[in-house]
Every structure is written in C-alpha cells, then in structure tokens.
Design brief:
Number of helices: 15
Order of helices and strands: HEEHHEEHHHEEHHHHHHHHH
Strand order of the largest sheet: 1-2
Distance between the termini: 68 Å
Helix content: 55-70%
Radius of gyration: 31 Å
Oligomer: single chain
Strand content: under 5%
Shape: elongated
Length: 434
C-alpha cells in the first residue's frame, strides 16, 4: 500500500468534509468569518516565511561547543564532500526548502491560534440573523446552514489545496532529484541506492535488509509523483509553489526550488549526452557513423537547452565547471549553454565531412575557409578538438589538395590577422600543420 498516496488523499478529503460539517453548525455568517480567517492565515504565513527562513539561516548554533552561523555550517558540511561550486548552489536551495517548511509551520500555528482564540472572540460579534416580529421582539434566528455548508466546503478546498500543493511540490521535486542523482551516479560508474527501477522487483533489496525501508519510501514517493492526484496538484499549484520557494541571492537574482531541481535534471541530461563524446574515435573522426553520432548528440543537447527555463540555464552555466571536472570531459569553464547553438555546432562536423568527400574538381576555397572560420568561432568545437590527444584532421582528409588548401587558408588568415593567433595555432594543431 502506498501510504503517501493514502495520506494525501485523506488530506484532500478531510478538510472538505469537516468544512461542510462545521459550516452546517456555524451557519453562513460564522462560516464566512472562519473562511476569512483561514485566508488571512495563508497570506500572513506566505508574507513571513521568507523572513523567518532568512533569519534561521543566519542564526548562530552550537556545534561541538563552538558558535557557528547556520549558513556557514551548511557550507562546511557540503564542501567536505563536494566542490565549492556545489556549495554555492546548495545553500540557496536549502534556504528555499526551509522557506517552504516554515510556511507550513506558520500556517498550521496561525490556523490553530485563530481557531482557539481569534474565532471564539470574533463570533461574539458575528451572530446569526435575527427575525423580529412587528413589535421588534426576536422570535427566531436564521443560520442559513446550507449556505454555511457551502462556505465551509470552500474553506475546506482552500485548506486542502494550500497544504497538498506544498507537500506535492516537495514530493515531486524530491522524486525528480532522486531520479537525476541516480542517473548521474550511473553515468559516473558509481553504485547508488537511488539508481533503481521501482517497477523491477529484482532491483529491490530483500525483506529485512537495512535499506529496505528506504527503498519503500522512495518507491512510494515515485509512485505518488506519477499519480493523477499529484499531477492535479502540480498543475494547479506549480506557479504558487515556485513563488513560495523563491529566494533572492546576494547578486539580486532569484532562484526557486523547482527551477534549481530543473537545473539538476538538465545538468544530468547534458552529462548523458556529453559522456557519449568519449565513445567517438576522433583519430578517425571523418566517418559517416561518427558524424551521425555527433549530429544526434548535438541535436539532443539543443533540445535539452530549449526545454529549460532561464533560471535552470543560468544555474547549469554555473555548475558546468564541476560537471567537466567530475566527468573528465573537456574544460567547460567558458561554456554558456544559453548562448551556444548546439545544432549549429554539430553542423560543423557535417560540413567538414562533406568537404572531405568532395571531388577535387568540386573543391572551392570558400568551402574550406567557411569551415575553418566556423571552427575558430565555435563556442565548443575548437576547445573540444584540442582536448583530443594525437588528433590530426589533416591525416584524415582523403586528398592532398584538401590539406594544401586548408594550410594555405590558415596562412592567409594569419597574414590578414582576422583571427587571433591563439586560434590559428589551435587550428594548425588539430590539422597537424605545426
């Protein structure tokens, strides 16, 4: 049984049922009063959660007898196992999660206080409508219980949506990060308990295993994230949840919990494509199979980039250095996926392949010069080719005239000073013309 799905279903139904019953008892006026108080609770909790979370992050705590700011403790904990760039990514993320949790705590505290103190006082002044006779004497009261029940149902829906949207957001993003981390560890050749297929019983530990309960919980989270109930709440509350989790950084930019998890998801997808470059035989690059593989990789990278939000792209750009170091790929310090046209980058290889397969009678200087300038001005290709030990594209060209034309064009570019000497040297290196 999926207890998470059951709990969320109960959290959906119970507030509505109790809202209807209490609305019948309170009548229309007092039910409306309680509805207003609930809305006030949500607004106040939303307004204060950011301030409370920021205060908690800068609060001093005692660690082994020493005073330390919470934020510094988190940074030290993270950097003990991860690169500094990951710490700078994780600290705002922790604050974002804390902000969400603070909202829930504040809402429930305010809900209880208004129910126990504020509502009993206010209802003394909000009474059912009195029916008077011709002499002005009160002969009866009308609570309008049915209207109260409707208002109570509305109150229940608001409470259910408010709580379940937040909890669903946390669970859906948790499932996303677990899946992404499992895939990343798989790419890097590391075993990880998250990298499992929950639909395959052979991947799960045997009953009694110490990690069995963890797998059960992760499986339930994954199953709930794919449920219709979760998708309903995610559709309704995606934007409010993102706004609730929004944190302003020191440089003035704003991040959200879903946006950062989307960045991790995008980072993993990019890593899955970039790691495929290691399977390319660059010493025999100019083959149809290699070119088709490169076209597919760069096409997929372009699709991944197009599917990411601006926030996710910005975060991925910051983490690219870490990605390159961890995966042993080319230096990605200057890689900015927002500005790179991956489709165009992939076409450079295609043009080089087509150039190599042209008959000498069809060769034009313009073709060769266009390819060389594209490589020189590329955001990725030149650096990537330089990282390949022993590469010599000139040796892979089928005809001496192809090689001579490229050498002549590079000499002309150097004389014209249209391309930096550093790039001219790099081009000569990858074409074996030093």
């Amino acid at each position: 049984m999926n207890y998470i799905l059951l709990a969320m279903a109960l959290l959906t139904v119970m507030p509505i049922v109790f809202g209807v019953l209490l609305g019948l008892l309170r009548g229309s006026r007092r039910a409306l009063l309680r509805l207003i108080l609930i809305v006030v609770c949500i607004v106040v909790a939303f307004a204060l959660c950011g301030t409370f979370a920021k205060t908690l992050m800068t609060t001093e705590i005692q660690i082994n007898g020493e005073s330390m700011v919470m934020q510094d403790f988190i940074r030290e904990t993270i950097t003990s196992d991860l690169p500094e760039s990951m710490a700078e990514f994780a600290i705002p993320l922790v604050q974002s999660i804390l902000q969400i949790m603070v909202f829930l705590v504040l809402f429930f505290v305010l809900w209880f206080l208004t129910w126990a103190i504020v509502f009993p006082i206010c209802k003394l002044f909000v009474k059912p409508r009195r029916v008077k006779d011709e002499r002005g004497n009160v002969v009866s009261t009308k609570k309008h219980s049915l209207i109260g029940a409707v208002i109570g149902a509305v109150q229940g829906v608001i409470v259910a949506v408010c709580v379940c949207v937040v909890l669903t957001g946390l669970l859906v993003q948790t499932n996303s990060i677990m899946t992404a981390s499992g895939e990343l560890n798989g790419i890097m050749g590391e075993s990880d308990t998250y990298a499992v297929d929950y639909d395959n019983s052979s991947d799960l530990p045997e009953e009694g295993d110490a990690t069995a309960s963890n797998f059960d919980i992760m499986g339930m989270v994954s199953e709930y994230a794919d449920s219709g109930l979760a998708k309903m709440y995610d559709t309704i509350g995606a934007k409010p949840f993102a706004r609730l989790s929004q944190v302003k950084l020191e440089d003035g930019t704003k991040i959200t919990f879903p946006g950062q998890i989307e960045a991790v998801r995008g980072l993993v997808d990019i890593a899955k494509e970039l790691i495929k470059l290691q399977d390319i035989d660059f010493k025999n690059l100019l083959t149809q199979e290699n070119i088709n593989t490169l076209e597919t990789i760069f096409g997929n990278l372009d699709t991944i980039k197009a599917g990411m939000s601006d926030e996710a792209r910005t975060t991925v750009n910051k983490l690219m250095t870490t990605l390159g170091d961890e995966l042993g790929l080319a230096d990605l310090n200057s890689m900015n996926i927002t500005g790179i046209n991956f489709q165009k980058e992939g076409e450079i290889f295609t043009h080089l392949y087509e150039y190599n397969n042209k008959d000498t009678s069809e060769l034009t200087r313009e073709d060769a010069e266009s390819i060389l300038r594209d490589i020189a001005q590329s955001d990725l290709i030149l650096d990537m080719l330089q990282q390949q030990d022993g590469i010599n594209l000139s040796d892979q060209l089928d005809d001496a005239e192809h090689r001579e034309m490229i050498a002549d064009i590079l000499d002309g570019m150097e004389a014209d000073d249209t391309i930096s000497q550093e790039k001219i040297d790099a081009l000569r290196s990858i074409f074996g013309l030093n």
